[in-house]
């Protein structure tokens, strides 16, 4: 099959397109013929930092397609069914092997391009806001990195739950697009002080919850944005750089800090129930998956570079 692989860590330039042996579904596994790959933030981190398993390591962890075959003991789907799945690696290919506990059937009528990002985007956003962030109606949440994949999901879910949503993104045009998705107020993180602006927007009180996709140098500004007894949920560090919280930071406002790592719970009945609902909501149009752009699989290096440097709005996809 055709796939995108790498044999050393590095930037998008380490990605190569070529032939690798077809994978097979082992016991408890589902073989998916891929229609759409959702490029995840974690795909970039793995490519840069996690040692490849072979000279032709196929990366990527989320894609949608049609079940080609199932291994022994698979009960959740059958060949020919449309699915979206998540695995530790292998999505950047024509065929993708997924453990059955990480497979989600796609509802009739839902485009596989729109289904491909749903489990990680909305699952992570939901856990960040509600499972760990304990967001309630009437509270204010600040979403750092709101124009990215998880960010656009956070904005929509928080608004739907009755919260006031402040989001950060680079550039007025992307902030405008977030307003159309339900964001109440935007902060251009490349031009404004996030802490000062969030305090202005909340009459000095600060926000109840920060959901941070970016980490890096903005962490002190995000701590400043939080009010008394605020909660800070760590999702990712797309902005790189150092991230840390001192005892004094936590004590000064009685803050709570939580980390979210959806992959640890994506196999659970709790997350399956959530994702099933989100797939239905996207199918019915209640939730939106903004697709920034679609690249052919052979152009994965260009697509990864666009995710890293191009400030896409929502998700970037690959088509085998
Ligand atoms: N913990 C989990 O379970 C989990 C699950 C999914 C993803 N993640 C991680 O969470 C992060 C976000 O994921 P994603 O899929 O939403 O990634 P994404 O689509 O690439 O979006 C990342 C966002 O981060 C923002 N950003 C980057 N540098 C920034 C900076 N210095 N200051 C402020 N914002 C900055 C970008 O906003 P601008 O373009 O506007 O600058 C971009 O919208 C990634 O690091 C990913 O690996 C974690």
Automatic annotation (TrEMBL):
Q: Which GO MF terms does the UniProt record name? A: NADPH binding; oxidoreductase activity, acting on NAD(P)H; zinc ion binding
Keywords of the record, alphabetical order, are: NADP, Oxidoreductase
Against SMART domains, the record matches this protein to:
PKS_ER
- Name the InterPro entries on file: ADH-like_C (IPR013149), ADH-like_N (IPR013154), ER (IPR020843), GroES-like_sf (IPR011032), NAD(P)-bd_dom_sf (IPR036291), Quin_OxRdtase/zeta-crystal_CS (IPR002364)
Question: Quick check: keyword NADP in the entry?
Answer: yes
Spell out the PANTHER family in the cross-references: QUINONE OXIDOREDUCTASE PIG3 (PTHR48106:SF18), QUINONE OXIDOREDUCTASE PIG3-RELATED (PTHR48106)
Positions of the Enoyl reductase (ER) domain:
10-318
**Presence of the UniProt keyword Oxidoreductase in the record:** yes
Q: Which SUPFAM superfamilies match?
A: GroES-like, NAD(P)-binding Rossmann-fold domains
Top-rank lineage group of the source organism: Bacteria
User: Can you name this protein?
Assistant: NADPH2:quinone reductase
